[in-house]
Amino acid sequence: MTVYVAWTSADLHQLDLPTDLAGPWREVVVAADELAFVDSEETLSAVYHALKWSLPEGVALTVAPVADLPKAKGLRRGTNSWLRARFR
């Protein structure tokens, strides 16, 4: 299992993610308007392309694996608990 962090210039809350998002992952957690964490067994390329194809054309996107539990504040309720559970 790998946790990826994804940033996009699209407002993820307006897109009703993760409800509308099917892809090569177990779960997507929207942490902030433009930030999500993805739990997947798939490669970086597979996750990146599935997200790219799910977002409106022309928006910015970057995806990277998260190597260790990140320090974070101000994210949506439950995000830090979700992350801690994956990095035990």
Major sheet characteristics: 4 strands, antiparallel
Mean pLDDT across all amino acids: 91
Q: What is the CATH domain class?
A: Alpha Beta
Measured by DSSP, the beta-strand proportion falls in 25-35%
Let me know the number of strands. 4
Q: Name the shape in a single word.
A: globular
CATH architecture: 2-Layer Sandwich
| Rounded Rg | 12 Å
Approximate helicity band: 10-25%
Q: In CATH terms, what is the fold-level topology?
A: Alpha-Beta Plaits
Annotation field: number of helices: 2
Structural class: alpha+beta
Side-by-side strand order of the widest sheet: 2-3-1-4
State the low-pLDDT regions, or none.
Answer: none
Listing every helix as H and every strand as E from the N terminus to the C terminus, the arrangement reads EEEHEH
